[in-house]
Amino acid sequence: MTELRVGLIGLGMMGRHHARVIREVDGLTLAAVADAAGDPHGVADGMPVLGSVAELIDAGIDTAVCTVPTGMHEEVGLALADAGIHTLIEKPIAHSIEAGNRLVEAFTANGLIGAVGHIERYNPALQSLRERMAAGELDDIYQIATRRQGPFPARIADVGVVKDLATHDIDLTAWLAKSEYTSVAAQVTTRSGRAHEDMVAATGRLANGTITNHLVNWLSPMKERVTVVTGEKGAFVADTLTADLTFYANAVISTEWESVANFRGVAEGDVTRFAIQKREPLRVEHEKFRDAVLGVSYDVVTLQEGLNTLRTAEDLLLTARQPVDMRSA
Question: Of 23, 116, 280, 284, most Cβ neighbours within 10 A?
Answer without folding.
Answer: 116
